[in-house]
Amino acid sequence: MNPLVVSAAKSGRRHHQRRRLLSLSPQKASAVNQRIVRELDRPRFYRVGEAAAILNLSPMTLYRAIQAGEFPAIRVRNRIIVPARAIDDIEQAAVTSNRVVDTADFTTTTLPARPQA
Predict the structure, then answer these.
(1) What is the number of alpha carbons within 13 Å of residue 116 lying toward its C-beta?
(2) Cα–Cα distance for residue pair 22/17, rounded to 1 Å
(3) Which residues, 6 or more positions from 44, have their beta carbon under 8 angstroms from its beta carbon?
(4) For labeling, which of 41, 78, 89, 106 is most exposed (least CB within 10 Å)?
(5) CA 116 to chain centre
(6) Residue 7: which H helix or E strand, with range?
(7) What is the largest CA-CA distance in the chain?
(8) How many CA atoms are closer than 13 Å to the CA of 78, on its beta-carbon side?
(9) pLDDT in tens for each of the 117 residues of the chain?
(10) Distance separating alpha carbons of residues 11 and 2, to the nearest angstrom
């Protein structure tokens, strides 16, 4: 993707967020603004090694879980990436349910249909 398009999209989001912040108290506006900046600066995808480090796993363990369909990931040709949102959703499920969650519950068992040419 063109870096200028990404920059313009982020800039547009920041402008919209700033307008909304004007109606908040200075303390709340500062806290919300810091959260927005963190979200915009955070990556949307992680390499498998990065995701494994976040989860305190060996990269090979995570590769095996992905290969077995037990961990959500995206394959683009021969590259595998892990959505940051998948890690967040798994974490949120564990925290809100106050129990151990199985990552396989966050994967799909069927692949999407390929478009017909």
Answers:
(1) 0
(2) 9
(3) 83, 84, 85
(4) 78
(5) 30
(6) helix 3-21
(7) 55
(8) 0
(9) 444 444 445 555 555 555 554 566 777 777 777 766 666 677 899 999 999 999 999 999 999 999 999 999 999 999 999 999 999 999 999 999 999 998 888 887 655 556 665
(10) 14
